Structure formats: structure tokens, C-alpha cells
Task: inverse folding
């Protein structure tokens, strides 16, 4: 690991000042579970680390509107096992516990989870071309090794830039963020221009022709909390994660499904609200309100779920090794919705 | 930079490079070599230690991040029953009784992860044990006897967890861990 300067501010404003002083060369560190690995591999080479662990951002607070504010420095483990999260946002607990391992969840923070970088093998290997890693010759050549390489784990949606070219087919690796997308969480940030909020759907971005940017934060901005809206879809939800082995792997496809069901007449239930988000298929958690609209007002049946799956996967494109993901994702959506509606059991 | 870390009950004040990983601090500066480095990329779990009571991977943690924290390593798991002797922790006994190790490389990490599990869930099912071990890789055993060892410990766990004890713990005749702990701050270079 290359040497760096280590700073440890105790306030949010001081942390933002420390980072803004050298926006291209400094990084925040919280749990560090991904950043330190990236620094060992020389994928990230910050010259300054601003350790934010002493900032007062480690609380879970109830909001007046019935929502919940998750401090950026609350660990993933403490969040997943928090009684209010388990009770009101079980989808979030399930998604967090589907990711990483106990030791990493003990260290990783909610804020840091948003900044996980892709696990694309070409991104990690500095001898291979990568447009996401590339910002100068010290970080390897430009290009995309995955596009015509081994791309089993890569994206099938949202890969084209405005000019029709594909610069990056990396996926966002987080499980937690898929649940946050389904729950319509809001990210609170503090920066040189003050505080602002960003809906989770606008926090991460598609690669376009600037895949080096994972998110829409401005230089120097620090995530301080994640707000969950009051409706946690706590009765009907499922997080289904499909991967190459049963544990400790990133998702090939994951689905966060959440429903509200109402008894419409003697013959059965009707869907009154629906949320559907996918992980492992794009540069950000993949959600389309059009797909959810196809579910509302319908009975929860596999046919209805299949139509929503088709809508969510509209435009999907494989790159060879990952083409199987399109069919896998369709079936995963139908199964996750069936589990959420309690038509089939979760394992 | 200077850090102060309480390791296995003894407070250490040390000068470390900013980029020093906790596992290298423990092994190279404190000579606590029971914590192993396997993959060095937070995958295998051989480097698992407890920081402020929870299991973490010490190869992906700066020593600076542990400044001010209490760290327990495998050397701190045995329970001191007199000023000069100590008993193995039930998990250590369990691994011995159930043949839970072959080469032994993963064992310290397995025990530290299992200790965290048993603290939250004193009677885990086989499935819960296997799930808890997802961040610890063993190339020898096929995991069956590791699961049995943890089940053994769960049924023989009458002793208090070391970090809940008043008295600091002493493990073996290790250069550092057999020092009688006095509560003083020891400068380590």
C-alpha cells in the first residue's frame, strides 16, 4: 500500500474541509472494508485518508413522519439487527445479511456501503484495460477488458452511453443498496455548499462515457445519513439473491420485491402497491416504476409477475458469458414476487 | 503516528506507520503471531480478531482505526485460573475434542468468529453455525468437524467470555502474553 497522510477530524465540517482541500487526492475512510483492499491493489491511491469514524454519525433515529434515519457510521450489522429495522424494514435486514460476511458487516458502515466499488475482475487488475479505473497511466490502460473478455458477472442493463457505445459493463455490488432502492431511501449529504438530500435512485449513476464516476456526489460531499420513508412494506417482501455458490459471493442477480396486498373480494387479494429493484445487473440498482405499475390493481399471480419482469428487463443485452442473466433475472423476479406475496416459501 | 490499543487486557502504546494494518501491528510489533494472514484481501477470515467485542478482519483494518479500542486475539482467549496457569477456552477445547483442525492455519480465525457467534447466539443450530462461518475458509476439514467443535463449545460453555472478566487473561508461555498484567501502559516499539 502506498504511503498516505492520515487525518482524523471529529466534526462533519472539519471532515468536509479536509477533503475539499485536495478533492482529487483525498478519500474518506469509515469501515474501510473495500477501500483498503483497493489501496493494497493500487486501484485506489489516495495521498490523504480522512478517517471519519470519530464523527457523531452513528445513531439510528426515528423521524417525525414515521420514517427512520440511519446514521452513516452505523455498521451494517447493527443496522440489520436493529429492532426497528427488523420490525419495520425487514427487506433491508434481509438484503444486508445476504451480503459479505459477519466480520465485514461488523466493520462496514451504511454510508460506506453506498461507495462500494464494482467487483469486476478487470477493474481490480491494474494490468488490464479499464475505463472505470483509468484516470492516468499509473492506474493502467483505458478500455474495457470485460466487454470482449470473461463477463459472467457483468451488466445486462443500462450499459450504452448516449452515443450508442459501451464503455463499461461493471455492476454495482451492493445488496443493501438494492433494498434501499426498493424502499425509496433518501441519502443525506453535507458538503462545501451545505447540506442536501439525494433520492437513492439519483445517487448512483449509469456508466455512460464517464464510468469512473459511480455516483452523483459533488467534490467534498460527505454522506451523513440514510433516511427510510415510513412505509417499509414489512408484511410482504422478499430479497432473493442468486450467486454461483450458496454463501459469500456477490449476486449474479438479486431482487428486492415489496408488495402491499388488499383483500378485494371473496376470491382473493389484489396488489395495491409494489416495489421492485434488481442488483447484479447494472451499474446501479435497477428499478423502473413502469414495471411496478403493471402490478398495481392486479391479483398476485405468476403471469402478472412475469409481465412486470419483462417490463423491468426491457432492453436487456448480454455480452456472451452473461447472456444467461436475462432469463435468470426474469425467473428471479417472478420467484421473489411470489415469495413476497407468500405464494411460495423463502429458504 | 502513536496509537494506544488494549490488546488481550494489556494497554499498549505504540508508534506505527499510518498505513500499518492491524494484523501486521499485532504480528510484527506485538509478536502475537496467532493471528494469521491468509488471503490478505478480507476473504479468508484467518486474520479475524475482536475489536471492541466484535469479530473483524484485521488484514483490512488500519492499526490507526483501532486506536483507543480493545482488541482480543486468539492468545487472549484462554482463561487464566491462577497467576501462572490458564485453561483453554471452550472453543479451543472443542476444536481439540472434535478434531476441528488439520493444518490449523484457519483455526484462530474460526475460533474468533465462533466466539462472536456464541456471544449473540449461545445455542446455534448447525445451519446458523455454517452461515456464521461464511467469511472463514478452511481448505482441510470440509467444515464438518469445525461445526461439531463449535457445537461442543456451545454445550460446554460455562466459563465467562474473556472480555467480560475483571481480570485480564493470559494464554500461554508466549513472549508477551505470559506477562502478568498490571494495568500499566506498556510502550512497544
Result:
Amino acid at each position: 500500500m502506498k504511503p498516505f497522510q492520515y487525518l482524523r477530524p471529529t466534526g462533519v465540517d472539519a471532515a468536509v474541509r479536509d477533503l475539499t482541500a485536495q478533492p482529487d487526492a483525498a478519500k474518506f475512510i469509515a469501515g474501510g472494508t473495500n477501500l483498503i483492499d483497493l489501496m493494497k491493489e493500487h486501484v485506489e491511491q489516495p495521498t490523504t485518508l480522512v478517517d471519519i469514524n470519530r464523527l457523531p454519525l452513528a445513531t439510528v433515529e426515528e423521524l417525525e413522519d414515521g420514517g427512520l434515519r440511519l446514521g452513516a457510521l452505523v455498521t451494517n450489522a447493527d443496522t440489520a439487527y436493529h429492532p426497528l429495522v427488523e420490525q419495520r424494514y425487514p427487506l433491508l435486514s434481509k438484503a444486508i445479511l445476504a451480503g459479505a460476511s459477519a466480520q465485514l458487516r461488523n466493520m462496514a458502515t451504511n454510508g460506506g456501503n453506498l461507495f462500494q466499488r464494482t467487483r469486476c475482475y478487470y477493474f481490480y487488475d491494474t494490468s488490464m484495460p479499464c475505463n472505470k479505473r483509468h484516470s492516468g497511466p499509473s492506474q493502467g490502460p483505458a478500455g474495457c477488458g470485460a466487454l470482449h473478455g470473461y463477463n459472467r458477472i457483468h451488466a445486462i442493463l443500462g450499459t450504452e452511453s448516449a452515443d450508442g457505445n459501451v464503455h463499461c459493463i461493471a455492476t454495482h455490488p451492493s445488496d443493501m443498496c438494492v433494498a434501499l432502492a426498493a424502499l425509496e431511501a433518501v441519502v443525506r449529504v453535507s458538503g462545501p455548499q451545505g447540506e442536501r438530500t439525494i433520492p437513492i435512485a439519483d445517487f448512483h449513476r449509469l456508466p455512460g462515457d464517464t464510468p469512473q464516476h459511480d455516483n452523483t456526489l459533488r467534490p467534498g460531499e460527505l454522506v451523513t445519513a440514510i433516511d427510510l420513508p415510513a412505509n417499509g412494506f414489512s408484511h410482504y417482501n422478499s430479497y432473493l439473491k442468486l450467486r454461483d455458490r450458496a454463501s459469500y459471493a456477490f449476486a449474479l442477480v438479486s431482487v428486492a420485491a415489496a408488495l402491499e396486498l388488499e383483500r378485494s373480494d371473496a376470491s382473493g387479494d389484489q396488489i395495491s402497491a409494489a416495489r421492485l429493484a434488481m442488483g447484479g445487473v447494472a451499474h446501479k440498482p435497477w428499478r423502473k416504476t413502469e414495471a411496478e405499475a403493471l402490478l398495481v390493481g392486479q391479483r398476485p399471480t405468476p403471469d402478472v409477475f412475469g409481465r412486470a419482469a419483462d417490463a423491468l428487463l426491457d432492453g436487456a443485452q448480454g455480452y456472451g458469458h452473461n447472456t444467461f442473466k436475462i432469463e435468470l433475472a426474469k425467473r428471479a423476479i417472478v420467484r421473489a414476487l411470489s415469495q413476497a406475496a407468500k405464494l411460495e416459501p423463502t429458504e | 503516528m502513536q496509537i494506544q490499543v488494549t490488546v488481550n487486557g494489556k494497554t499498549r502504546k505504540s508508534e506505527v506507520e499510518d498505513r500499518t494494518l492491524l494484523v501486521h501491528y499485532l504480528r510484527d510489533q506485538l509478536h502475537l503471531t496467532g493471528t494469521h494472514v491468509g488471503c490478505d484481501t478480507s476473504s479468508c477470515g484467518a486474520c479475524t480478531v475482536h475489536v471492541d467485542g466484535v469479530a473483524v478482519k484485521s488484514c483490512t483494518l488500519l492499526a490507526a482505526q483501532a486506536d483507543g479500542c480493545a482488541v482480543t486475539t486468539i492468545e487472549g482467549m484462554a482463561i487464566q485460573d491462577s497467576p501462572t496457569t490458564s485453561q483453554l477456552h471452550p472453543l479451543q477445547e472443542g476444536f481439540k475434542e472434535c478434531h476441528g483442525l488439520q493444518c490449523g492455519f484457519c483455526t484462530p480465525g474460526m475460533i474468533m468468529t465462533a466466539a462472536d457467534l456464541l456471544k449473540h447466539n449461545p445455542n446455534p443450530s448447525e445451519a446458523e453455525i455454517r452461515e456464521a462461518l461464511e467469511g472463514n475458509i478452511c481448505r482441510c476439514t470440509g467444515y464438518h468437524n469445525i461445526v461439531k467443535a463449535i457445537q461442543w463449545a456451545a454445550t460446554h460453555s460455562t466459563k465467562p467470555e474473556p472480555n467480560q472478566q475483571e481480570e485480564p487473561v493470559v494464554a500461554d508461555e508466549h513472549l508477551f502474553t505470559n506477562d502478568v498484567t498490571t494495568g500499566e501502559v506498556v510502550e512497544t516499539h
